[in-house]
Structure formats: structure tokens, C-alpha cells
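User: Hey, quick favor. My workstation is busy. Could you predict this chain's structure for me?
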Amino acid sequence: MSSAREYSPTGMAARTAATLFVFVIIFTGLLSGAYLWTKPAIEASAAEEKMKLVDEVLPRSEYDNALLEDTLTLPATPELGLSESSTLYRARKAGQPVAVVFEAVAPDGYAGKVKLVVAVRTDGQVAGVRVTQHKETPGLGDYVEVKKDKNKARPWITQFQGMSLAQVAAHDWKVKKDGGRIDYYAGATVTPRAVTKAVLKAVKWAEANRNQLFAPPGAPQ
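Assistant: No problem, here it is.
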């Protein structure tokens, strides 16, 4: 007489389900553990990438606060071409506001949107601008990006450094083809025109909101 335990189909199904449930719990636990273990490294890497981008538009020598921790959440901001919320970073030195770093979008690039990061100092002066994403034609309009610009000594995008509304009238924030002061490469004016317009809007927005953007730490938003 066999002593092997026999299971009904219902019992077998229940046993299989229980086994799968245990495996799911174990697997989920392992994934959660791996995530918690790697989370600090992932966050550190993300912070490092953000700082690399910030460094391109604002030298670290100009501020001494933990810039990535001194932030302001912006709602969708049409003036900056932003349809979703974004994060603005505030730079300070000895507790005093120095500059803000934020995103902007030029919606009318030749091949679509051109995403930017802009740094504006407390006096309204542009500290730096960089293109972070675009779909412009390789070898033509993509010179708005530093890495794609053949002029390594003075990339096109660096023309905005030092510009402010106090020093340059709004009507001069145009490419030279349109009567402004911004250089451009022949045969590719649509993208630089769009970027220039977006930078001007960013500077105007920063000026219009300076009391909030450059508020001391802990001030009501």
C-alpha cells in the first residue's frame, strides 16, 4: 500500500498558488532590498549629473550653499515655455542671493522644441545658457549646442553670457539678420532665433519675479 500523499486537483492548485506567492514575496523583497541598497548611489549619480550641468552655466566659485538643496518648485510656466512643473535652484554666497538656475524651452526651433538651462544673476545678468535637448539638423542648426558647435574657442551659445536688460535693450536680443546683436551661422537662423527669443523671455521672467526668486532662506513662497 503506497504511503505517498495524494492531492486533489483543487489541492494541487492551492499548493502551486502558495508556492508562487512565496516566490513573489521573496523576489519582491530582493528587489526592494536591491533598490534600497543602490538608491544612495543612484541619487548621488543624478546629483552629480545635475551639478555638471549647473557648472556649465554658473561657476562654483560664485556660491557656497548646497545649491541642489536650495530649490523652488515652479508650476507650469508659459513665460518659460514650460508646460509641466520644474525645479529652480538658488545660489547664495555668505547667505546672500547670487543667482538662480532654471529650465526654459524654445518652442519654435526648426525641428521642434529646444530645451535650455539658464542661470541669471541678481543684477539680471545672464551667467550662462546651455541647450540640454533638441532635434535640430545635424551639421546645420545644432550648433546651438556646445558639443556640436565647431567653434570651440567661443561657442555660439556663450554670446548670452554677461547680457542683461540693463545693458542690452530688448529689441537687440535678436540675431543680426533681424536687426539684433546675436551672431548666427549663414543658412541656419531659425534655431538661434528661437533660442535667443527664449533666453530673452527667461531674463524678463526672472526680473519680473526677482523678489520671490531671490528671497532669503526660509522666506514665505
